[in-house]
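Protocol step 6 of 9: fold each sequence in the batch and record its structure tokens directly after the sequence line. For illustration, a two-sequence batch is reproduced in full.

Sequence one:
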Amino acid sequence: MKKLLLVFILFGSALFAQTINIAVAANVSYAMETLLDEFHKTDPDTDVKVTLGSSGKLTAQIKHGAPYELFMSADMKFPEALYNDGIAITKPVIYAQGSLAYLSNTQKDFSKGIELLKDKTIEKIAIANPKTAPYGKAAVEAIKNSGVYEDIKSKLIYAESISQTVSYAVTAADIGFIAKSSLFSPKMLHFKKDVNWADVDSKLYTPINQGIVILKGGENKEVKAFYDFMISSRAKEILKGFGYLMP
């Protein structure tokens, strides 16, 4: 009888469990596990399937019918375009504000600021593709606004997403422009501030406002619950712990 009861409980739990599909900008990947753990404290029966990628590529997938129900972008431009096209059913709101950092596998003199990139010992600089990755766009903006673009443009190597840029920065390049959030991954804790990494002067680039929208097909209570969680004060506190700013 107890075995039958256990089977019924397990079957009943599976029966009522719901899966939602969300598209998430790669820079948020380092915080997702903590965010999902917190979300599941109040919504344990909702299974959240996460697809990571550059915001531009995820937007293209959404426009071509990918079955995502919610989109967390690395900027506001892409979700605003989806909203204007009627593909997103909620107006984009900011859930976090990203920031740029330099990262190198070897010790660098970050006291030089962005002028460091002109150093002859730096031959390759990794950035995310500015056409599809907002952090890449911000990196190019910072380089141009600092006046060093013409001096270092031949050194730039492009990654498909900000997460791939992290890999490039510590393998294929001498330094890279990364999302500061990536430094809070357990695998990155051995990199030291002002030795391996430093903040990029935020005055050099437009604030990276990251937007969230519910998409067509996401008109259900489970998606709404996750959306409400992501714009809640608790989610914002978690994101601040991963290097994000709040507007």
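Sequence two, same batch, same settings:
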Amino acid sequence: MSDKTNTIFGIYPIKEALKSKVVFDKVFVQKGIDSDKIEGLIKDLEKENIPVSTVPFEKLNRLTKGNHQGIVAVTSPVSFHSLETVVEKALAREKAPLFLILDQITDVRNFGAILRTAECTGVDAVIIQKTGGAPVSGDTVKTSAGAIFKIPICKVEHIKDAIFYLQGSGITTLAATEKTNSEIYDVDMKTPLAIIMGSEGKGVSKSVLGLVDQKASLPLLGEINSLNVSVACGAFLYEVVRQRRQ
């Protein structure tokens, strides 16, 4: 086990960690490995809804220098919250709820920076998908400046389901995208709101864009046609703060 990298490697250490209710972020299994013990462990992990990804041998070697036996788990420094619970709590408060949905943000530094800004702007919870996003790791803790311990993080099977649930709870969903003529300054952000930020390369996915209530872009006045996602997220969140303080 390596505390420095928040990894557990090897069949029996991972099995014992699972029994001890250690919070896993994701598990990586060597591609093509033939092991009944690993197959059994994968079934136990999947019963607990822990994401398992098949990766090349070299990926496991990069994660740890120990004898990983074909399986490496990345643990989480925080426990995750139920989406239903955080929504109910937010709706019970006097202020309008504010949620942040991250659609496949993969860079740990962006993820940490977003968490830091989210905590500073009063976001009620950050919602991420179980697979495909940046790990909740020690690096996330560092770049978030500890904000990860102060803001609830909800892991969901699918972003779409979270959007449907929020909409059904009376919360407007707003996607940050350049594929619209509406700017953030044209949108009423004083109502219960969930902002969706997309991945570094592709932005908010097309399937998600087709579900949201509203879309908004940031005005870009220079020659570069995009912003870093954590910077764009900060601009959106502070526009919410500005409007709600008026």
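Proceed to step 7 once all outputs are recorded. Observation for sequence two: The domain at 7-75 is CATH 3.30.1330.30 (60s Ribosomal Protein L30; Chain: A;).
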